[in-house]
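[Meeting: bench + compute handoff]

Bench side (C.D.) handed over the final construct sequence. Compute side (W.E.) agreed to return the predicted structure before the next meeting so the bench team could plan truncations. Sequence as handed over:
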Amino acid sequence: MANLPTKQLRGVKDLLKDAVDAGVDTTEQVHLALARKPYAVLEKISLIAAPVHVVERIQHTITVGVYQSIRTINALSAVVATEVIDRIERSADKKNKY
């Protein structure tokens, strides 16, 4: 990996970030769709429909928050990786000057 040109390193970094984002988006959609099913059944029972809706909203909020946290960590990781690649590039430029 150290012998890859920085342009290729940037491409790998971008590819990984995009892959994680796409995976998180898909996983979140599936997770929310699956979680919705039991709530849909329970909401049909009028005596518990209101509390079921409250629990579903709480669960939905937590789930969305977790996936957003993963996206944020992924974005921050990409920023850190960019900085590392920039430093590698600057170091290589300095070596090539001498």
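W.E. noted at the follow-up: The mean pLDDT is 94. C.D. will use this when planning the next construct.
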